[in-house]
DNA sequence: AGGCAGCGCAC
DNA sequence: GTGCGC
DNA sequence: GCCT
């Protein structure tokens, strides 16, 4: 590797090597887009291989490697142990290292070293051997931190290239004193120079926040920040000669380059023991090991995955699969007929496959499980299958649908051969439904009334939902969405979907998810999920995200700050008012509300509303309106005949809230209507309530809706979520816009889909009319369950 | 290769 | 403007 | 992740 051949006779040479290493580095971590950083940092490593960088690989027991656990990687422990492992594992590196150590630790070398670098030493006024550097010395500030001595530069720089780039002594401007999170800290960067622009920025930033940067090994060092491409073994090789010991002193924090970035962003010294700051080891961990790591006991079912790894996101390669699904035009596809991916084990439960996927369409399945009304709706869709569902501007969409589906009976066209998978897939997905429009929008078919208890795919759904939630935690919005949509599709199926081909046919299930569905069907597990939920940080994330008003961003901050428990948050974290309440009633808000209690809550509110204004009509929306047996919270919509603005109902709301508060029913407010005059917003109230005799706080929302918007609002607040988004997407495709206020047409969008005008209100008050106009068959609320 | 719904409220 | 919730 |  990098230390390769060269003999290093002196430290110059030694650092030259460092530079060489360094030159390969590059990154863009210093961007401060919080979202991006969060994503990068908290998203699970996309390939199972890269997972190895953190806790997983560390945790796996590797008899031959001594690093048994995470803590071994941290500064506080085990440097000796790891060093021995280095010796064993990487002889070359070790040889170099020890040579280095020998060379560098010779007395004269040390002399040269310190002689040439007095400024660094002198820059610390009180070279207190004790780590307690007072902040006052730090206040002597910027220049103290900078001024690398000529001597050191000479030594550290590759003379030629470095010269010009030599930064003009741009004084580091310190942030206000109280923000200097690194005050009193002396940081040693590896490589120990600012040659790379990104590292330079990192160093400068650290100094802005009070750090002292040292290029030389001094006893004052509190932190070692290592560029991410350095492996632990390399670092130890470099440091041992400097430290003259085999392990890093316990009081020195050794972390990778994410550390300062996080600290600065969060304005706090984050917990350095988190896995994301661990320096990677050079321990090779193979993909195979990685994959089955958590599933040791289940080896029997192990999969025989091919090695093609072009797909960085998961080890799954669907190519064969896809071809299989294309080629197998035989109606009798076996569940395990797909080549090579699974080792079909005999103990895999024989799926109760009703029939070949080719002969059964999703729509038929839906119909089987459907009540009469939706039956009708579906029949309607199918009847209109080849006809325009809408009377208007559908032209652009039609071609695609006719192309894919002009005549289902002629599907063997030569064109198919050119793009086998896509064509096949597309056509399959659309042919039964007839119209591309209907296939693409969940709202067209809605839910089925197949309950979770009886759904043949309930187990698969459960697992995929967990995947969805996992991705949600990771702020991977779109994967989360995809999995939820896939669940929605699955929920509508009347038969157990247990093969790739079956699954792949269905809308919103692509190669990746189809593969996973098959894995679940065969093994009962999803390794990806098993892995994911083992991540230590995932627990915390789950915990913190349970707090009302704490989302992925805040939760990640908490984690980076090192908080481990809700109590940590109570005592240490700064929380907003709402978050405080959410924390105080963590368990309350996490408790589902049984339907009968929902009804009881409803009665209380309605009884209170009546005397205030008998004309106001309270409606319980949300999952209650969809007929759910329990709900997470309760939503009220208040509307009144003749009203056209939410504002018209303000008086009602304030009166209602104050009365309910005085009776003790409402226990707190979380969000109250804003009172901007110029705009008729100010329509929602969020808070908490209790049922008399029951101490559990419940989340409750009030919504003011003018009669003119009640239809749209009902759609909105009845949901579910997927159904709504689907409706809106459909509207948008028709150059219309659907929101909680109404359905608008002739919406014009400019470049960058900027809204050019509001569009003309088509319908707002009549729920059914909105369905109609959008060409969506009417669905009762209970049939809008799509996920 | 780009989109994925759109808005109100707190901070 | 961001974060969050719906 | 899926879809266009």
Automatic annotation (TrEMBL):
The UniProt record lists the keyword NADP: no
Active site residues per record: 516 (nucleophile)
Signal peptide as annotated in the record: none
One GO MF term: DNA binding
Reported cofactor(s): Mn(2+)
GO biological process per UniProt: DNA replication; double-strand break repair via nonhomologous end joining
Protein's recorded name: DNA polymerase lambda
CDD domains: NT_POLXc (cd00141)
Keyword Metal-binding among record annotations: yes
Subcellular location: Nucleus
One GO term describing the cellular component: nucleus
Coiled-coil regions listed: none
Family membership: Belongs to the DNA polymerase type-X family.
A Pfam short name: DNA_pol_B_palm
EC number assigned by the record: 2.7.7.7
Reaction(s) the record says it catalyses: DNA(n) + a 2'-deoxyribonucleoside 5'-triphosphate = DNA(n+1) + diphosphate
Annotated BRCT domain residues: 177-277
SMART domains recorded: POLXc (SM00483)
Organism of provenance: Phialocephala subalpina
Span list, region Disordered: 20-69, 110-148, 286-360, 386-433
InterPro entries named in the record: BRCT_dom, BRCT_dom_sf, DNA-dir_DNA_pol_X, DNA_pol-X_BS, DNA_pol_B_palm_palm, DNA_pol_lambd_fingers_domain, DNA_pol_lamdba_lyase_dom_sf, DNA_Pol_thumb_sf
Major localisation: nucleus
Biased composition (Low complexity): 41-64, 325-339
Compositionally biased region (Basic residues): 300-309, 420-431
SUPFAM superfamilies for this protein: BRCT domain, DNA polymerase beta, N-terminal domain-like, Nucleotidyltransferase, PsbU/PolX domain-like
Polar residues composition-biased segments: 110-123
